[in-house]
């Protein structure tokens, strides 16, 4: 991973995951997250405006903005073209990994099994997204999976809510915890940026050592 992503993830150990319906929401959302103390954000490629949202949020300057739910080479190119400084995928796709390598952008692949983790490690990727963390078994799955792989670092994501945070963050192999709870579809629909700021600040505070 590049130094800026490592610094951003390890700075707060919180990775807000965002599915943003409209690029008009990008600026107030970036302000709310940064004001709440977030250092980075993952914009999922699940909406038609995702590319524009990455572009607008990257312009904020206070956040290291990456792209999530990146499933194809074409999405990888669009995400990086829009200014994404890292790429997250729900799974391990060798072609997406290779494209990220070519483009010189750090990538965090999703893994759910020891075999997938071994493939990521063999590809030189030490930091993986444990996904979907809660349905997989939460912190007991994390502990069991991390034990044989001392080199691996994890960004558990999927079904995580504030009550789970301390359990994940107390594991030394967890770089950061990701999730949507700080900025949900409902918050965005209501334009409730004050609540996004508040939930982000609470998460950042809980993650402090
Ligand atoms: C992801 O793509 O990382 C997940 O959809 C996160 O969503 P959740 O935090 O609501 O499970």
From TrEMBL:
Keyword Iron among UniProt keywords: no
Coiled-coil parts of chain: none
Record's keyword terms, sorted: Carbohydrate metabolism, Lyase
Gene Ontology molecular function terms on file: (R,S)-4-hydroxy-2-oxoglutarate aldolase activity; 2-dehydro-3-deoxy-phosphogluconate aldolase activity
Enzyme Commission numbers on file: 4.1.2.14, 4.1.3.16
Top-level enzyme category: lyase
Alphabetical list of CDD domains matching this protein: KDPG_aldolase
Pathway it works in: Carbohydrate acid metabolism
Keyword Nuclease: no
Family the UniProt entry places it in: Belongs to the KHG/KDPG aldolase family.
Subunit structure and binding partners: Homotrimer.
NCBIfam families, per database record: eda
Protein name (record): Bifunctional 4-hydroxy-2-oxoglutarate aldolase/2-dehydro-3-deoxy-phosphogluconate aldolase
